[in-house]
């Protein structure tokens, strides 16, 4: 099997192509597409067989939860629980953008997606393609980087094809990604407005601290 390459306008995604990608996800496919940092592997997170494929493709540790891309803040509220003001402040300042926020997962998400941690990592990406697909699907999509374990993350579709072209059915080519550094990850799952930086990426720690003062 060789992946289908689907060229899409990165700034104004074509509606018919967005529909095609959304229907592919609905049917249980794994689809690679650009985010605002790296290319990611998208599946419908409620389809546990599709989620399992992500772990198999990436040889990803089973205890690591998958991060999810959402279209807007209200979708975040639907997927999380026990949200406090720290979440609101960070989302208001940095979304859409390269900030991943870990919160307690709501009951709508299967435990498998949270790797049985009960937590979920959420992000509203700046990338129009990813947001358009999420809006059309009506569900969040997974966003783990589209690369093999031990290989570099991909900033263009050709890199994804070289690493995963014989393992996944569809790669959305939206041109090069806007950044070459990963998202910053902030963990708010401790509650009580406590926070912890798990990875400093595109957004420096001091900017997070300023937003939460």
In short:
Helices cover 31% and strands 21% of the residues. The chain has 213 residues and is of the alpha/beta class. GO terms for molecular function: ATP binding; double-stranded RNA binding; L-threonylcarbamoyladenylate synthase; tRNA binding.
Write the layout of secondary structure elements.
Blueprint: E1 4-7, H1 15-26, E2 31-34, E3 39-42, H2 48-58, E4 67-69, H3 73-79, E5 80-81, H4 85-94, E6 99-105, E7 119-123, H5 128-137, E8 141-142, E9 144-145, H6 157-164, E10 170-173, E11 184-187, E12 196-199, H7 205-212
Parallel strand pairs: 1-10, 2-10, 4-7, 6-11
Antiparallel strand pairs: 2-3, 3-9, 4-8, 5-6, 6-7, 11-12
Helix pairs in contact: 1-5
Question: Can you characterise this structure?
Answer:
This protein is α/β, with parallel strands linked by helices and 213 residues long. The protein has a single domain, classed as DHBP synthase (Alpha-Beta Complex). The protein is 31% helix and 21% strand. It is built from seven helices and twelve strands. Strands 4, 5, 6, 7, 8, 11 and 12 form a seven-stranded mixed β-sheet that branches. The protein has a five-stranded mixed β-sheet with strand order 1-10-2-3-9, sandwiched between helices. Helix 1 crosses helix 5. The termini are far apart. The mean pLDDT is 93. It is an enzyme of class 2 (transferase). Residues 15-203 form the YrdC-like domain.
Coarse shape = globular
Number of domains: 1
* Overall radius of gyration: 16 Å
The proportion of strand residues reads: 15-25%
Helix content bin? 25-40%
């Amino acid at each position: 099997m060789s992946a289908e390459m689907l060229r899409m306008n990165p700034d104004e995604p074509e509606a018919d192509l967005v529909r095609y990608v959304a229907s592919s996800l609905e049917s249980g496919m794994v689809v690679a597409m650009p985010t605002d940092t790296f290319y990611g592997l998208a599946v419908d997170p409620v389809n546990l067989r599709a989620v399992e494929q992500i772990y198999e493709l990436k040889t990803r540790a089973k205890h690591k939860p998958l991060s999810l891309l959402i279209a807007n803040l209200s979708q975040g509220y639907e997927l999380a629980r026990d949200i406090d003001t720290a979440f609101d402040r960070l989302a208001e300042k940095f979304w859409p953008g390269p900030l991943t926020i870990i919160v307690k997962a709501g009951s709508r998400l299967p435990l498998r997606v949270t790797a049985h941690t009960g937590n979920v990592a959420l992000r509203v990406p700046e990338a129009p393609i990813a947001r358009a697909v999420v809006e059309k699907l009506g569900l969040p999509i997974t966003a783990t980087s589209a690369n093999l374990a031990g290989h570099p993350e991909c900033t263009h579709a050709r890199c994804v094809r070289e690493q995963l072209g014989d393992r996944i059915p569809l790669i959305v080519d939206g041109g090069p990604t806007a950044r070459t550094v990963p998202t910053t990850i902030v963990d708010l799952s401790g509650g009580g407005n406590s926070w912890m930086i798990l990875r400093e990426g595109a957004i420096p720690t001091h900017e997070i601290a300023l937003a939460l003062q």
